[in-house]
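Exam revision sheet. Question 4 asks you to relate a sequence to its structure. Input first:
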Amino acid sequence: MSDFNDQIIAEFRSNGGTVTTNGFGRSLVLVHTVGARTKASRVSPLMAIPQPQGGWLIAASKAGAPDNPAWFANLVAHPETVIEVGDGEAVTTVEVTASVLEGAERDAAWAQFTATSPGFADYQVRAGGRVIPVVLLSPRDTGR
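Answer key, structure tokens:
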């Protein structure tokens, strides 16, 4: 984990999910993953778009790198996980299942990212032939 990510995670947790660094505001969630190969626990601060029907979209953009971020492989290998979400007052842990979106569903979700932040369109250009994956994090009914 980078020092920058550690700073973002600490700020997120201490400010109820609000991160003023880089103007993130309340657009982030903290995604917990287990390494696909290493089995190590990791936490990644990621931009998320809440969905009206519930859940959050995240994009494996890696700022337009030619390969997917490590957290994406981890979610594919271990799709049942938890995220931390903030409401500006407190941070709550939510159990979720990650689903990689495909086809028209992925394209519609991707359009939400480019509409929210034009930088995502730049990421797709930089990524070249790599189609940036979009993941839906759906809350699990834990029966509690």
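Marking note for examiners. The chain has a mean pLDDT of 94.
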